[in-house]
Design brief:
With about 180 residues, this protein is mostly beta strands. About 0% of the residues lie in helices and about 50% in strands. Strands 1, 2, 4, 7, 9 and 10 form a six-stranded antiparallel β-sheet that branches. It has a four-stranded antiparallel β-sheet with strand order 3-8-5-6, with no helix packed on it.
Length: about 180
């Protein structure tokens, strides 16, 4: 017959070789009906890798790239770490390119971070072709679905192309608060 022990706090001894430890002996396991969550632990990771398709724009307004993921938070106190990457971002002509990580919750969008790279040469025949990444730390304080997406726009003219035979991706990790 199984027994049940109800306690509020478990503490190990305060001195000795195993001070401040609660030890589960070898061969024994601790079984939990749900996950044991410690602050700072990764609760979940979602990713999207775009292996085909491309985008060409000369827009000075933010354009969604379709490189996006949706995540349902486990807790409103969670923090999210977002990594975005373009395998190759091409910009032709003068000006620069802005890249963003956009967040949409319940139809409301915001941009928790932005990055920028600039053509060093103002010549209209200039071209930059480089891999580029952007990272963001976000605390949206919600348990509603969150969609994170990579956005681009040009500044000062020209066109920006992405994909061009290289993978693009976004990875979102939920960290316990």
């Amino acid at each position: 017959m199984a027994s049940e022990l109800i306690v509020q706090t478990l503490k190990g001894p305060t001195s000795g070789a195993n001070a401040n430890k609660v030890i589960i002996p070898s061969g024994q396991t601790l079984e939990c009906s749900s996950a044991v969550v410690a602050p700072g632990s990764i609760l979940q990771t979602v990713e999207y890798v775009q292996t085909s398709g491309s985008l060409v724009t000369s827009s000075s307004s933010r354009i969604g790239t379709g490189v996006e993921v949706t995540i349902t938070p486990n807790s409103a106190s969670s923090t999210f770490i977002i990594h975005g990457y373009f395998g190759r971002l091409n910009h032709y002509d003068a000006g620069g390119v802005e890249i963003y990580i956009g967040r949409t919750v319940g139809g409301s969008s915001s941009y928790p971070t932005a990055g920028y790279y600039d053509n060093a040469n103002s010549s209209t025949s200039n071209q930059i072709s480089t891999p580029i990444s952007i990272h963001c730390y976000d605390q949206p304080s919600t348990t509603s679905d969150i969609t994170y997406e990579l956005y681009v726009n040009v500044t000062g003219g020209g066109n920006v192309y992405y994909r061009d035979g290289y993978d693009n991706f976004i990875v979102v990790q939920e960290i316990a608060g």
